[in-house]
Amino acid sequence: MKKSMRRVMALLLSAVITTGMLGGCGGSAEKTKAPAQGAVEQQSEKNNGADISEHVELKMYLLGDRTADFDEVYAEINKILEEKLNASVSVDFLSWGEHDTKYSLLFSGGEDFDLIFTATSWGHYEQTVALGGFYPMSEEFIKTYAPDIWNTVPEIAWNQAKIDGTAYMVPNYQNEFGQDVLAVRGDLMEKYGISEIKNWDQLLEFYKACAADGMYASQKGPWYQYFQSQGLTITGGAPKDGELILYHTQDPDDLSFTYLLDWDGFSDYCYQMKELADLGCWSPDVLNSSEERQIGLLTGRTAGMIWNIGSCKTYAAEANAANPDWKVTLVDPVSGQDKKVNSYINNGVAINVNSKNPERAMMVLNEFYTNPQINDLTRFGIPGKHWEAVGEDQYKVIDESNYGVDSNCNWGWMNENIKRTEYIEDRTALDDTYDAMMEEWNGRVKAEHVYDGFNFDPTNVTTQMAAVEAAVSTYYDPLINGLVSDVEASLEELNLAMESAGIRDILAELVEQAEDYAASR
Question: Could you tell me the pTM of the whole model?
Fold first, then answer.
Protein backbone atom coordinates (compact mmCIF):
# COMPACT_ATOMS: atom_id res chain seq x y z
CA MET A 1 0.00 0.00 0.00
CA LYS A 2 1.09 3.52 -0.41
CA LYS A 3 3.52 3.76 2.42
CA SER A 4 2.38 7.01 3.81
CA MET A 5 -0.44 4.91 5.13
CA ARG A 6 0.56 3.12 8.29
CA ARG A 7 -1.10 0.02 9.49
CA VAL A 8 -4.23 0.41 11.60
CA MET A 9 -6.04 -2.20 13.65
CA ALA A 10 -8.53 -3.97 11.42
CA LEU A 11 -12.19 -3.81 12.49
CA LEU A 12 -13.27 -6.74 14.64
CA LEU A 13 -16.15 -7.99 12.53
CA SER A 14 -19.53 -8.47 14.19
CA ALA A 15 -20.51 -11.93 15.36
CA VAL A 16 -24.01 -11.39 14.01
CA ILE A 17 -22.71 -11.97 10.50
CA THR A 18 -23.67 -15.58 9.86
CA THR A 19 -23.11 -18.07 7.13
CA GLY A 20 -26.37 -16.84 5.67
CA MET A 21 -24.44 -13.82 4.49
CA LEU A 22 -23.15 -15.89 1.63
CA GLY A 23 -26.48 -17.13 0.33
CA GLY A 24 -27.92 -15.30 -2.59
CA CYS A 25 -24.94 -13.02 -3.19
CA GLY A 26 -24.43 -12.57 -6.89
CA GLY A 27 -21.51 -11.59 -9.07
CA SER A 28 -21.73 -9.10 -11.90
CA ALA A 29 -22.01 -10.65 -15.34
CA GLU A 30 -23.35 -8.30 -17.95
CA LYS A 31 -23.74 -10.34 -21.13
CA THR A 32 -23.39 -8.64 -24.48
CA LYS A 33 -22.97 -9.73 -28.05
CA ALA A 34 -20.02 -12.08 -28.44
CA PRO A 35 -17.10 -11.13 -30.66
CA ALA A 36 -16.48 -12.91 -33.93
CA GLN A 37 -16.18 -16.68 -33.51
CA GLY A 38 -12.67 -16.80 -34.96
CA ALA A 39 -11.43 -14.20 -32.50
CA VAL A 40 -13.04 -16.09 -29.64
CA GLU A 41 -11.34 -19.33 -30.62
CA GLN A 42 -7.95 -17.60 -30.83
CA GLN A 43 -8.38 -15.95 -27.45
CA SER A 44 -9.64 -19.20 -25.93
CA GLU A 45 -6.45 -20.91 -27.02
CA LYS A 46 -4.38 -18.14 -25.42
CA ASN A 47 -6.29 -18.52 -22.16
CA ASN A 48 -5.91 -22.26 -21.59
CA GLY A 49 -9.20 -23.03 -23.24
CA ALA A 50 -11.27 -20.80 -20.94
CA ASP A 51 -14.61 -19.82 -22.49
CA ILE A 52 -14.64 -16.07 -23.11
CA SER A 53 -17.42 -16.09 -25.71
CA GLU A 54 -19.73 -14.00 -23.53
CA HIS A 55 -18.74 -10.49 -22.53
CA VAL A 56 -18.41 -10.00 -18.79
CA GLU A 57 -18.30 -6.75 -16.84
CA LEU A 58 -16.55 -7.30 -13.54
CA LYS A 59 -16.82 -5.04 -10.53
CA MET A 60 -13.84 -4.31 -8.32
CA TYR A 61 -13.54 -2.52 -4.98
CA LEU A 62 -10.43 -0.53 -4.11
CA LEU A 63 -9.52 1.44 -0.99
CA GLY A 64 -8.92 5.17 -0.90
CA ASP A 65 -10.29 8.03 -2.96
CA ARG A 66 -10.81 8.23 -6.71
CA THR A 67 -8.56 10.78 -8.41
CA ALA A 68 -9.77 13.16 -11.11
CA ASP A 69 -8.65 11.19 -14.18
CA PHE A 70 -9.27 7.71 -12.79
CA ASP A 71 -12.21 6.88 -15.06
CA GLU A 72 -10.31 8.05 -18.15
CA VAL A 73 -7.39 5.79 -17.25
CA TYR A 74 -9.58 2.76 -16.66
CA ALA A 75 -11.37 3.36 -19.95
CA GLU A 76 -7.99 2.76 -21.61
CA ILE A 77 -7.48 -0.35 -19.51
CA ASN A 78 -10.88 -1.68 -20.54
CA LYS A 79 -10.00 -1.31 -24.22
CA ILE A 80 -7.17 -3.79 -23.67
CA LEU A 81 -9.29 -6.14 -21.55
CA GLU A 82 -12.08 -6.13 -24.14
CA GLU A 83 -9.67 -7.16 -26.87
CA LYS A 84 -7.82 -9.81 -24.85
CA LEU A 85 -10.47 -11.26 -22.56
CA ASN A 86 -13.84 -9.97 -23.77
CA ALA A 87 -14.22 -8.35 -20.36
CA SER A 88 -14.28 -4.95 -18.69
CA VAL A 89 -13.90 -3.68 -15.13
CA SER A 90 -15.85 -1.07 -13.21
CA VAL A 91 -14.38 0.22 -9.95
CA ASP A 92 -15.89 1.53 -6.73
CA PHE A 93 -13.84 2.91 -3.84
CA LEU A 94 -14.13 2.48 -0.09
CA SER A 95 -12.63 5.66 1.33
CA TRP A 96 -10.01 5.63 4.07
CA GLY A 97 -12.60 6.90 6.51
CA GLU A 98 -15.21 4.26 5.73
CA HIS A 99 -13.51 1.00 4.80
CA ASP A 100 -13.27 -0.21 8.41
CA THR A 101 -17.05 -0.10 8.76
CA LYS A 102 -18.19 -0.88 5.21
CA TYR A 103 -15.79 -3.62 4.10
CA SER A 104 -17.62 -6.44 5.90
CA LEU A 105 -21.01 -5.08 4.82
CA LEU A 106 -20.15 -5.81 1.19
CA PHE A 107 -20.28 -9.49 2.09
CA SER A 108 -23.01 -9.53 4.71
CA GLY A 109 -25.26 -7.41 2.50
CA GLY A 110 -24.80 -9.52 -0.61
CA GLU A 111 -23.11 -6.78 -2.65
CA ASP A 112 -22.70 -7.74 -6.30
CA PHE A 113 -18.96 -7.59 -7.08
CA ASP A 114 -16.02 -9.77 -8.14
CA LEU A 115 -12.61 -8.43 -7.06
CA ILE A 116 -11.48 -6.50 -3.98
CA PHE A 117 -8.26 -5.16 -2.52
CA THR A 118 -7.26 -6.84 0.73
CA ALA A 119 -4.31 -6.98 3.11
CA THR A 120 -3.29 -8.81 6.22
CA SER A 121 -4.64 -7.31 9.44
CA TRP A 122 -5.44 -3.71 8.45
CA GLY A 123 -7.01 -4.72 5.12
CA HIS A 124 -9.50 -7.27 6.51
CA TYR A 125 -7.91 -10.39 5.01
CA GLU A 126 -7.98 -12.84 7.90
CA GLN A 127 -11.35 -11.62 9.18
CA THR A 128 -13.03 -12.00 5.80
CA VAL A 129 -11.54 -15.45 5.23
CA ALA A 130 -12.88 -16.52 8.64
CA LEU A 131 -16.35 -15.43 7.55
CA GLY A 132 -16.13 -17.32 4.27
CA GLY A 133 -16.13 -14.20 2.10
CA PHE A 134 -13.23 -14.94 -0.27
CA TYR A 135 -12.95 -17.47 -3.08
CA PRO A 136 -10.37 -20.20 -2.31
CA MET A 137 -7.50 -20.21 -4.79
CA SER A 138 -6.14 -23.70 -5.41
CA GLU A 139 -2.85 -24.19 -7.16
CA GLU A 140 -4.71 -25.62 -10.16
CA PHE A 141 -7.04 -22.61 -10.29
CA ILE A 142 -4.14 -20.15 -10.23
CA LYS A 143 -2.08 -22.04 -12.80
CA THR A 144 -5.06 -22.37 -15.14
CA TYR A 145 -6.44 -18.83 -15.08
CA ALA A 146 -3.39 -16.81 -14.00
CA PRO A 147 -0.32 -18.74 -15.18
CA ASP A 148 1.79 -15.58 -15.41
CA ILE A 149 0.98 -14.70 -11.81
CA TRP A 150 1.91 -18.21 -10.74
CA ASN A 151 5.29 -17.84 -12.41
CA THR A 152 5.87 -14.42 -10.83
CA VAL A 153 4.76 -14.57 -7.20
CA PRO A 154 7.45 -16.19 -5.01
CA GLU A 155 6.65 -19.25 -2.94
CA ILE A 156 7.15 -17.31 0.29
CA ALA A 157 4.30 -14.99 -0.69
CA TRP A 158 1.89 -17.84 -1.43
CA ASN A 159 2.82 -19.42 1.90
CA GLN A 160 2.03 -16.18 3.71
CA ALA A 161 -1.34 -15.98 1.97
CA LYS A 162 -2.38 -19.49 3.02
CA ILE A 163 -4.85 -19.97 5.85
CA ASP A 164 -5.30 -23.60 6.84
CA GLY A 165 -3.39 -24.57 3.72
CA THR A 166 -5.36 -22.49 1.20
CA ALA A 167 -4.63 -19.09 -0.34
CA TYR A 168 -7.51 -16.64 -0.62
CA MET A 169 -5.67 -13.73 -2.21
CA VAL A 170 -3.04 -13.00 -4.79
CA PRO A 171 -0.27 -11.25 -2.84
CA ASN A 172 1.64 -8.36 -4.36
CA TYR A 173 5.27 -8.91 -5.29
CA GLN A 174 7.58 -6.09 -4.31
CA ASN A 175 10.35 -5.82 -1.80
CA GLU A 176 9.15 -3.35 0.82
CA PHE A 177 11.81 -3.32 3.48
CA GLY A 178 10.78 -3.33 7.13
CA GLN A 179 13.88 -1.35 8.03
CA ASP A 180 14.08 2.31 8.98
CA VAL A 181 17.11 4.42 8.16
CA LEU A 182 18.19 7.95 9.04
CA ALA A 183 18.43 11.07 6.94
CA VAL A 184 21.24 13.06 8.55
CA ARG A 185 23.11 16.29 7.95
CA GLY A 186 26.26 15.34 6.04
CA ASP A 187 27.84 18.69 6.80
CA LEU A 188 27.57 17.96 10.53
CA MET A 189 29.07 14.49 10.07
CA GLU A 190 32.05 16.21 8.40
CA LYS A 191 32.22 18.80 11.17
CA TYR A 192 32.31 16.12 13.86
CA GLY A 193 34.82 13.94 11.99
CA ILE A 194 32.33 11.07 11.55
CA SER A 195 32.82 9.40 8.18
CA GLU A 196 30.08 6.75 8.44
CA ILE A 197 27.18 5.57 10.61
CA LYS A 198 26.84 1.84 10.07
CA ASN A 199 26.31 0.45 13.57
CA TRP A 200 24.83 1.31 16.95
CA ASP A 201 28.05 2.67 18.46
CA GLN A 202 28.62 5.02 15.53
CA LEU A 203 25.04 6.22 15.80
CA LEU A 204 25.50 7.06 19.48
CA GLU A 205 28.76 8.84 18.66
CA PHE A 206 26.89 11.07 16.22
CA TYR A 207 24.07 11.73 18.70
CA LYS A 208 26.49 12.76 21.43
CA ALA A 209 28.48 14.96 19.04
CA CYS A 210 25.27 16.75 18.04
CA ALA A 211 24.35 17.37 21.67
CA ALA A 212 27.83 18.71 22.45
CA ASP A 213 27.34 21.12 19.54
CA GLY A 214 23.99 22.34 20.89
CA MET A 215 22.04 20.52 18.16
CA TYR A 216 19.19 18.05 18.67
CA ALA A 217 20.23 14.82 16.95
CA SER A 218 16.71 13.61 16.15
CA GLN A 219 13.09 13.98 17.16
CA LYS A 220 13.22 11.20 19.76
CA GLY A 221 15.11 8.10 20.87
CA PRO A 222 16.24 5.56 18.21
CA TRP A 223 14.30 2.63 19.70
CA TYR A 224 13.73 0.74 16.45
CA GLN A 225 17.38 0.96 15.52
CA TYR A 226 18.30 -0.55 18.86
CA PHE A 227 16.16 -3.67 18.78
CA GLN A 228 16.78 -4.14 15.07
CA SER A 229 20.51 -4.08 15.83
CA GLN A 230 19.82 -7.06 18.09
CA GLY A 231 18.16 -8.98 15.24
CA LEU A 232 14.67 -8.40 16.65
CA THR A 233 11.55 -7.02 15.02
CA ILE A 234 7.97 -6.19 15.95
CA THR A 235 5.22 -8.80 16.11
CA GLY A 236 2.23 -7.92 13.95
CA GLY A 237 -0.88 -7.16 15.97
CA ALA A 238 0.90 -7.15 19.35
CA PRO A 239 0.43 -4.17 21.71
CA LYS A 240 1.89 -0.75 20.88
CA ASP A 241 2.07 -1.51 17.15
CA GLY A 242 4.00 -4.69 17.88
CA GLU A 243 6.77 -3.06 19.91
CA LEU A 244 6.09 -4.71 23.27
CA ILE A 245 6.55 -8.27 22.00
CA LEU A 246 9.42 -8.95 19.58
CA TYR A 247 10.83 -12.00 17.82
CA HIS A 248 14.25 -12.84 16.36
CA THR A 249 13.60 -12.31 12.68
CA GLN A 250 17.26 -12.93 11.76
CA ASP A 251 17.11 -16.52 13.09
CA PRO A 252 14.40 -18.62 11.38
CA ASP A 253 14.94 -21.43 13.89
CA ASP A 254 14.15 -19.26 16.91
CA LEU A 255 10.39 -19.45 17.50
CA SER A 256 10.42 -17.73 20.88
CA PHE A 257 9.06 -14.26 21.64
CA THR A 258 10.75 -11.50 23.60
CA TYR A 259 8.52 -9.53 25.95
CA LEU A 260 10.35 -6.31 26.74
CA LEU A 261 10.08 -6.45 30.52
CA ASP A 262 11.60 -9.96 30.47
CA TRP A 263 14.58 -8.78 28.39
CA ASP A 264 17.73 -7.27 29.89
CA GLY A 265 18.36 -5.53 26.57
CA PHE A 266 15.36 -3.28 27.13
CA SER A 267 16.61 -1.99 30.45
CA ASP A 268 20.07 -1.46 28.91
CA TYR A 269 18.48 0.62 26.17
CA CYS A 270 16.50 2.70 28.69
CA TYR A 271 19.67 3.55 30.63
CA GLN A 272 21.40 4.59 27.39
CA MET A 273 18.45 6.79 26.44
CA LYS A 274 18.48 8.44 29.86
CA GLU A 275 22.10 9.41 29.20
CA LEU A 276 21.32 10.77 25.72
CA ALA A 277 18.25 12.67 26.90
CA ASP A 278 20.19 14.27 29.73
CA LEU A 279 22.85 15.35 27.22
CA GLY A 280 20.19 17.04 25.11
CA CYS A 281 20.05 14.73 22.09
CA TRP A 282 16.35 15.56 21.57
CA SER A 283 13.82 17.97 22.94
CA PRO A 284 12.60 17.26 26.51
CA ASP A 285 9.12 18.25 25.28
CA VAL A 286 8.96 15.51 22.65
CA LEU A 287 6.18 13.57 24.41
CA ASN A 288 3.89 16.60 24.18
CA SER A 289 4.65 17.31 20.55
CA SER A 290 2.41 16.36 17.65
CA GLU A 291 4.92 17.64 15.12
CA GLU A 292 5.50 15.39 12.12
CA ARG A 293 8.84 13.66 12.20
CA GLN A 294 10.33 15.42 9.17
CA ILE A 295 9.76 18.97 10.47
CA GLY A 296 12.84 19.05 12.70
CA LEU A 297 15.15 18.16 9.82
CA LEU A 298 13.50 20.53 7.35
CA THR A 299 13.64 23.46 9.77
CA GLY A 300 17.19 22.76 10.91
CA ARG A 301 16.22 22.06 14.53
CA THR A 302 17.42 18.46 14.35
CA ALA A 303 20.43 16.93 12.64
CA GLY A 304 18.45 13.98 11.35
CA MET A 305 15.18 12.09 11.11
CA ILE A 306 14.21 8.42 11.31
CA TRP A 307 11.76 6.84 8.88
CA ASN A 308 11.57 4.32 6.05
CA ILE A 309 14.12 4.74 3.29
CA GLY A 310 11.72 6.25 0.76
CA SER A 311 10.42 8.92 3.13
CA CYS A 312 13.94 9.73 4.32
CA LYS A 313 15.09 10.21 0.75
CA THR A 314 12.11 12.43 -0.05
CA TYR A 315 12.68 14.78 2.87
CA ALA A 316 16.44 14.67 2.53
CA ALA A 317 16.03 15.90 -1.04
CA GLU A 318 13.64 18.63 0.12
CA ALA A 319 16.10 19.75 2.80
CA ASN A 320 18.99 19.79 0.33
CA ALA A 321 17.00 21.78 -2.21
CA ALA A 322 16.45 24.52 0.36
CA ASN A 323 19.89 24.20 2.00
CA PRO A 324 22.46 22.65 -0.37
CA ASP A 325 25.25 23.14 2.15
CA TRP A 326 23.57 20.70 4.57
CA LYS A 327 24.48 17.73 2.32
CA VAL A 328 21.74 15.59 3.87
CA THR A 329 22.41 11.90 3.21
CA LEU A 330 21.12 8.47 4.20
CA VAL A 331 22.71 6.18 6.79
CA ASP A 332 21.85 2.67 7.94
CA PRO A 333 22.96 1.96 11.52
CA VAL A 334 22.20 -1.76 11.13
CA SER A 335 23.97 -2.13 7.80
CA GLY A 336 25.57 -5.42 8.79
CA GLN A 337 22.30 -7.35 8.78
CA ASP A 338 20.32 -9.03 6.05
CA LYS A 339 17.15 -7.07 5.37
CA LYS A 340 13.63 -8.03 6.34
CA VAL A 341 11.07 -7.65 3.60
CA ASN A 342 7.59 -6.70 4.74
CA SER A 343 4.97 -9.38 4.36
CA TYR A 344 3.89 -9.78 0.74
CA ILE A 345 0.30 -10.07 1.92
CA ASN A 346 0.43 -6.49 3.17
CA ASN A 347 -1.18 -5.77 -0.21
CA GLY A 348 -3.18 -8.10 -2.41
CA VAL A 349 -6.40 -8.84 -4.28
CA ALA A 350 -9.12 -11.38 -3.50
CA ILE A 351 -12.13 -12.69 -5.37
CA ASN A 352 -15.61 -12.57 -3.85
CA VAL A 353 -16.68 -16.13 -3.04
CA ASN A 354 -20.03 -15.39 -4.73
CA SER A 355 -18.60 -13.98 -7.93
CA LYS A 356 -20.38 -15.53 -10.89
CA ASN A 357 -17.17 -15.26 -12.88
CA PRO A 358 -14.21 -16.19 -10.66
CA GLU A 359 -12.30 -17.63 -13.60
CA ARG A 360 -12.62 -14.46 -15.68
CA ALA A 361 -11.84 -12.36 -12.59
CA MET A 362 -8.59 -14.29 -12.15
CA MET A 363 -7.75 -13.85 -15.82
CA VAL A 364 -8.28 -10.10 -15.55
CA LEU A 365 -6.13 -9.97 -12.44
CA ASN A 366 -3.44 -11.82 -14.37
CA GLU A 367 -3.43 -8.92 -16.85
CA PHE A 368 -3.29 -6.26 -14.13
CA TYR A 369 -0.40 -8.07 -12.49
CA THR A 370 1.76 -9.09 -15.46
CA ASN A 371 0.74 -7.06 -18.53
CA PRO A 372 3.25 -4.16 -18.55
CA GLN A 373 0.90 -1.85 -20.45
CA ILE A 374 -1.96 -2.29 -17.98
CA ASN A 375 0.35 -2.27 -14.98
CA ASP A 376 1.82 1.04 -16.11
CA LEU A 377 -1.63 2.52 -16.67
CA THR A 378 -2.75 1.60 -13.15
CA ARG A 379 0.43 2.99 -11.61
CA PHE A 380 1.01 6.22 -13.54
CA GLY A 381 -2.02 6.97 -15.71
CA ILE A 382 -2.06 7.67 -19.45
CA PRO A 383 1.32 7.90 -21.20
CA GLY A 384 1.83 11.28 -22.85
CA LYS A 385 -0.61 12.93 -20.48
CA HIS A 386 0.33 11.89 -16.96
CA TRP A 387 3.76 10.37 -17.55
CA GLU A 388 6.24 9.29 -20.18
CA ALA A 389 8.53 6.29 -20.45
CA VAL A 390 12.27 6.70 -20.21
CA GLY A 391 13.93 3.65 -21.69
CA GLU A 392 12.53 0.24 -20.88
CA ASP A 393 12.24 0.49 -17.11
CA GLN A 394 11.94 4.12 -15.99
CA TYR A 395 9.25 6.79 -15.97
CA LYS A 396 9.06 10.57 -15.83
CA VAL A 397 6.03 12.38 -14.39
CA ILE A 398 4.27 14.92 -16.60
CA ASP A 399 1.16 15.60 -14.50
CA GLU A 400 1.16 14.38 -10.90
CA SER A 401 -2.02 16.16 -9.79
CA ASN A 402 -4.88 14.48 -11.66
CA TYR A 403 -3.93 10.81 -11.36
CA GLY A 404 -0.81 10.45 -9.25
CA VAL A 405 1.90 7.82 -9.05
CA ASP A 406 0.76 4.72 -7.13
CA SER A 407 -2.13 6.77 -5.76
CA ASN A 408 -5.10 4.64 -6.80
CA CYS A 409 -4.81 1.43 -4.78
CA ASN A 410 -2.84 -0.37 -7.46
CA TRP A 411 -0.68 -1.81 -4.66
CA GLY A 412 -2.39 -5.20 -4.75
CA TRP A 413 -0.79 -6.09 -8.08
CA MET A 414 2.62 -4.47 -7.74
CA ASN A 415 5.13 -6.60 -9.62
CA GLU A 416 8.85 -6.26 -8.92
CA ASN A 417 9.69 -7.80 -12.31
CA ILE A 418 8.04 -5.07 -14.40
CA LYS A 419 8.01 -2.19 -11.91
CA ARG A 420 9.40 1.01 -13.43
CA THR A 421 11.57 3.33 -11.34
CA GLU A 422 11.50 7.11 -11.57
CA TYR A 423 13.93 8.77 -13.94
CA ILE A 424 16.01 11.46 -12.23
CA GLU A 425 17.28 14.01 -14.70
CA ASP A 426 19.74 15.85 -12.46
CA ARG A 427 21.19 13.20 -10.21
CA THR A 428 22.69 14.11 -6.86
CA ALA A 429 24.94 12.38 -4.35
CA LEU A 430 21.77 11.58 -2.38
CA ASP A 431 20.30 9.74 -5.37
CA ASP A 432 23.48 7.71 -5.75
CA THR A 433 23.50 6.84 -2.04
CA TYR A 434 19.86 5.76 -2.18
CA ASP A 435 20.35 3.58 -5.27
CA ALA A 436 23.44 1.95 -3.81
CA MET A 437 21.64 1.21 -0.56
CA MET A 438 18.64 -0.28 -2.35
CA GLU A 439 20.87 -2.40 -4.56
CA GLU A 440 22.66 -3.72 -1.50
CA TRP A 441 19.41 -4.44 0.33
CA ASN A 442 17.84 -6.25 -2.62
CA GLY A 443 20.96 -8.37 -2.81
CA ARG A 444 20.76 -9.47 0.81
CA VAL A 445 17.13 -10.14 1.65
CA LYS A 446 17.10 -12.22 4.80
CA ALA A 447 15.85 -15.79 5.04
CA GLU A 448 12.13 -16.20 5.73
CA HIS A 449 11.05 -16.49 9.34
CA VAL A 450 7.66 -18.11 9.79
CA TYR A 451 6.52 -15.22 12.02
CA ASP A 452 7.23 -12.68 9.27
CA GLY A 453 3.71 -13.38 7.98
CA PHE A 454 2.05 -13.82 11.39
CA ASN A 455 -0.43 -11.31 12.77
CA PHE A 456 -1.88 -11.61 16.26
CA ASP A 457 -5.67 -11.53 16.57
CA PRO A 458 -6.54 -9.81 19.89
CA THR A 459 -10.24 -10.73 19.82
CA ASN A 460 -10.00 -13.00 22.88
CA VAL A 461 -8.07 -10.45 24.96
CA THR A 462 -9.60 -7.12 23.98
CA THR A 463 -9.99 -5.97 27.58
CA GLN A 464 -6.35 -6.68 28.38
CA MET A 465 -5.21 -5.03 25.13
CA ALA A 466 -7.10 -1.84 25.99
CA ALA A 467 -5.60 -1.76 29.48
CA VAL A 468 -2.06 -2.31 28.17
CA GLU A 469 -2.41 0.38 25.53
CA ALA A 470 -3.68 2.81 28.16
CA ALA A 471 -0.57 2.24 30.29
CA VAL A 472 1.84 2.69 27.40
CA SER A 473 1.75 6.47 27.17
CA THR A 474 2.06 6.84 30.93
CA TYR A 475 5.08 4.60 31.50
CA TYR A 476 6.52 3.21 28.27
CA ASP A 477 6.88 6.30 26.08
CA PRO A 478 8.90 8.28 28.68
CA LEU A 479 11.22 5.31 29.23
CA ILE A 480 12.13 4.71 25.59
CA ASN A 481 12.94 8.41 25.24
CA GLY A 482 14.98 8.65 28.45
CA LEU A 483 12.60 11.20 29.95
CA VAL A 484 12.42 9.73 33.45
CA SER A 485 14.21 10.74 36.63
CA ASP A 486 14.89 7.16 37.80
CA VAL A 487 15.17 4.41 35.18
CA GLU A 488 15.01 1.50 37.62
CA ALA A 489 11.95 2.85 39.41
CA SER A 490 10.22 3.65 36.12
CA LEU A 491 10.89 0.15 34.79
CA GLU A 492 9.31 -1.29 37.92
CA GLU A 493 6.28 0.96 37.53
CA LEU A 494 5.90 -0.11 33.91
CA ASN A 495 6.24 -3.75 34.88
CA LEU A 496 3.56 -3.49 37.57
CA ALA A 497 1.23 -1.64 35.19
CA MET A 498 1.68 -4.25 32.46
CA GLU A 499 1.10 -7.17 34.83
CA SER A 500 -2.00 -5.50 36.23
CA ALA A 501 -3.31 -4.81 32.73
CA GLY A 502 -3.05 -8.48 31.77
CA ILE A 503 0.04 -8.65 29.58
CA ARG A 504 0.55 -12.31 30.53
CA ASP A 505 -2.90 -13.18 29.16
CA ILE A 506 -1.96 -11.47 25.91
CA LEU A 507 1.36 -13.31 25.77
CA ALA A 508 -0.30 -16.68 26.35
CA GLU A 509 -2.89 -16.04 23.64
CA LEU A 510 -0.25 -14.77 21.21
CA VAL A 511 2.04 -17.76 21.74
CA GLU A 512 -0.86 -20.18 21.21
CA GLN A 513 -1.88 -18.45 17.98
CA ALA A 514 1.72 -18.32 16.75
CA GLU A 515 2.22 -22.03 17.40
CA ASP A 516 -0.93 -22.85 15.46
CA TYR A 517 0.15 -20.51 12.67
CA ALA A 518 3.62 -22.08 12.44
CA ALA A 519 2.13 -25.57 12.43
CA SER A 520 -0.15 -24.67 9.52
CA ARG A 521 2.65 -23.38 7.27
Answer: 0.77
